Amino acid sequence: MNAGKIIARLREEKGWSQTDFAENSSVSRVMIGKYERGEAIPSIEVAKKIADAFGVSLDYLVGEGINAHFDKKTVQRLQDIESLAPTIKDKLFFLIDTVIRDNKAKQAYTA
Predict the structure, then answer these.
(1) CA 102 to CA 58: how far, in whole Å?
(2) Inter-residue contact 75 to 67 (CB < 8 Å)
(3) Which residues lie across from 71 on neighbouring strands?
(4) By CB atoms within 10 Å of each CB, which of 27, 50, 59, 105 scores lowest?
């Protein structure tokens, strides 16, 4: 997916018009339309404003990189987990693994 489609999808998920998004990102509505149609590519500075307005990383915005599927809140959580003591991390990962396993089992039985 290209950045323009990602921008349009994120904007629609927020329920913002292009004008609303322009106000929230300090990017002109005309340029937002051009980005969404693939007629222009935002500069790094503008892409940062766009990513900040949506609360996502630049990786997420362009759909590439190790963090491309994570919003900023998820990335921050992962960073916070990495700073925990090993015993606490082990307990947290055990809990996460248990929830994921149970969810997968539930999906398998309901499908």
Answers:
(1) 33
(2) yes
(3) 56
(4) 105
